[in-house]
Request: fold
Amino acid sequence: MSCCGATPDHEDLDAVARLLVGRLGAFVKTLRDNGFAVGLQEGQDAAAVMAAGYAGKPGLLRSAFKHLFAARKSEWDRFDGLFDAFWLGKRVRSRSLVSGAAPAANSPSLKSLQDANAGQSGPQGATDQIPSDDPPRDAGGEGRSEGASRVETLADTDFRRLADPQQVALAHEAAARLARVMRTRLTRRDQVRRKGQRLDLRRTIHRSISHGGVPIALVHRRRKSKPLRLVVLLDASGSMSAYTAVFLRFIHGVLDTFREAEAFLFHTRLAYVSDAMKERDAARALDRLSMMAQGAGGGTRIGESLQTFNRWHAARVLHSRSCVMIVSDGYDTGDPALLGREMAQLRRRCRRIVWLNPMLGWDGYAPEARGIKAALPHVDLYAPAHTLRSLAALEPYLARL
Amino acid sequence: MKARDDIAKSLAACGYIADGELATAVALMQLLKRPLLLEGEAGVGKTEVAKALASVHATELIRLQCYEGLDQSSALYEWNYQRQLLAIEAHRGQPDTIEDQIFSEKYLLERPLLAAIRRARPPVLLIDEIDRADDEFEAFLLELLSDFQVSIPELGTVKATSIPHVVLTSNGTRELSDALRRRCLYHYVDYPDVDREARIILARIGGASASLALQIARLVEGLRKEELRKVPGVAETLDWAAALVGLDVRDLKDQPELVHDTLMCLLKTHEDRARITREITARLVGKVA
Reply:
């Protein structure tokens, strides 16, 4: 164990120090591989910590490093395992290993889902059960007309048939436009205005100096507006595989534009993906996502995923001005009663729940799945989302929130 | 190393029953000159850490409570407009000198952040519930925490005379920026275990016996495992312990009815109150005794 073998001899100490610094570099790299954001400064500080005598006892060093390197609860919880594995050679609990250390190429990833889709392999997996050859459906003319000339041919194409990268780019654009029109909300932060509710004394007095102290020009402040918060829960299960890629692009566009937006992915469990999605470059974002998408393309447990969301994320992510957007086909392998209960709880916490169901756009589809029947009473808007036109049709609704 | 052990001792001496890792965090704060970010559920004693830290360093505690819309004039500094107006009136006729005069120290109102960097002895600066402030304030704070200087347009740059010990707390109602997290040391404050909670009760509530404190701590731990909407924190435990001591309860088993009736100190929503029925209370009391 290199970290506790220091002897008082000077040359030995030097050698030990060099060895330690080398090991420290490797440790920092391990942390980065596990999704910790560790910068140069942290590395230097870690060396300083070791030099200050913390390297003597593993327990102490672990505690010191934990404070230094962890930056949030999830990292705080995982750190001990990683530290022990690296410095003390113990086995890491399997959970911390899967959450990032595994090479992305080996795991079934969303990236590969998307690539497969773009490579025109068509709907796969569970989509086989459902009719795959229906004609593009007219969304009923409620779509916006701006930009229609470019989107026109695409607007009515089911996302399942979006293959060409250019079309995907257009979908991204539509998503970005959607995000921009969302109405903004009032906050308590003020902005200097010529007309406003409150006097800005500081600026008023400053201006009055040139008039010998007579405040002729009054300066006001008024409330600044801020965007509504959007929380997207995207179903990444097998039955949704044909749509997942496009919706990931959509979510990426929304997170780009919205400062207050969060995204989650669920299949059999829930994953928080906002951080990965905030990557500017869409391809890189999808790359990062692939690490989290363990089990994507399998079954869905909507109820349990919502339970996780309500229990661990809702307090942080939701406030009274939030809109929750669930994108799912409602094919749930879990308990519908649980789904109903969790939907009711979610309903109490946010302003609106929008449920987008790609299959709603298909001819002859009725919400028969038990899961969706349990969820529907709590949903404010239940809408199709299988074409760009149907997504665009959401604009006016979301703008009214 | 030595610093860490000293801190652990003095934290205990000033009545803060810390978990082992907190002493390390405090020692690192001094070694690396970084702020400490404390996260955890409401009521686990995050604010208390700052208070204990102030008494460990025998220094002043300066507190900034964050809220949405918190801005520079209430966090950093503000000019005393009333006095400025008076001064302008009083010196009517000498417009050349008046501007220099009214924008001087005499007319400056210190707010917590400015006060914290202008003390002779480094104070503890507690920035409470940073997650309630908005992104703009967070960005501003980040700048202050790295440079420790403030520029006041009318007065010039104010450099820190001492670098305060900064403690930030967050309840996690909003995700903090990565930049701020990276700038800080991180410590997650969890609910204390039974033993530590019992010691906290003993330290804080005069008149509680060791056996009662242990019973209370066990019962609260049992309660935290029930599915509650609002899990009781340490502050609630202390309230409840004080109530029981005030009502002259010696042993929880003797008065299960009273235990149930005083649970209002711990359960703060209607649903939780309804969920913990008399039977559940009886079961919990049975377990702890």
